[in-house]
């Protein structure tokens, strides 16, 4: 009996360390996580999951969904299901790459602006203000159009308009943390600017920036799909959800061409928003305390 009590006492702290916050166990957070996991598996293993070659024109044109082509065929006889699966690699993986690059560039520039201040702060923040002066989608369209239609140019355009948000958030967090006692103590011990930013400040500001990045993945997917929809992103015959929706608009009577990639975009964007909201709530003590009884 005593041994069982001791064993249970040793296991309890371990279970507490593994337990997720209540905000991450709400139904919406769980649903968002599951949907994201499913789509990531589909994107990684797309060549093996797709039932047919997404570029092959092997079927009758504009077939409605049937037992052979579950999502129907498009205007040139390609299987829509295979193209939706292959398009996940373009839309999801490129969006993740874009957000990661924006996070790194914006966070580094924002941290330097907040920590060094003076001229460095003025230059970086005025450049960010210049980007913020234009609507995001309009500026991305102008840059993508000037560079030429391609996925690479669409990602470059999105990167140019995305990094200032991370720079501004990181700068404000660094400004609030650089005069903290632990940062000042580190400087008195001889830490230079890079060491102070990396060891003292970064661990304390990374969580809000990561939440912003999670919420931005859905926005990135929408904007990349929007550029492809307008003909400024993926070039045919590359399977891309935005380009597929555009093709469906041109063949409006064949509803399945646009509906299924549109539903794919909707599911992924909602899933990342669910997860991002849950992460944001987990960092807010007032919200976290208010979430009672909804956790799974």
Write the layout of secondary structure elements.
Layout: H1 2-18, H2 27-44, H3 46-49, H4 80-116, H5 118-132, H6 136-147, H7 151-177, H8 181-188, H9 193-229, H10 241-250, H11 256-283, H12 285-290
Helix pairs in contact: 2-4, 2-11, 4-5, 4-7, 4-9, 4-11, 5-7, 6-7, 7-9, 8-9, 9-10, 9-11, 10-11
Q: Characterize the overall form.
A: elongated
Beta-strand content? under 5%
Reading off the top of the CATH hierarchy, the class is best stated as: Mainly Alpha
The CATH topology label is MetI-like fold
The CATH level-2 architecture is identified as Orthogonal Bundle
Unreliable spans: 5-18, 287-293
Number of domain modules: 1
Query: What is the helix fraction of residues, given as a range?
Result: over 70%
Give the terminus-to-terminus CA distance.
32 Å
Instruction: Spell out the helices and strands N to C.
Output: HHHHHHHHHHHH
Helix segment count? Answer: 12
Backbone structural class: mainly alpha
The whole-angstrom Rg is 23 Å
Main beta sheet: strand number and arrangement? none
The CATH superfamily appears as MetI-like
Question: Care to describe what's here?
Answer:
There is one protein chain. The protein has helices at residues 2-18, 27-44, 46-49, 80-116, 118-132, 136-147, 151-177, 181-188, 193-229, 241-250, 256-283, 285-290. It has a single domain, classed as MetI-like fold, CATH 1.10.3720. It has 296 residues and is mostly helical.
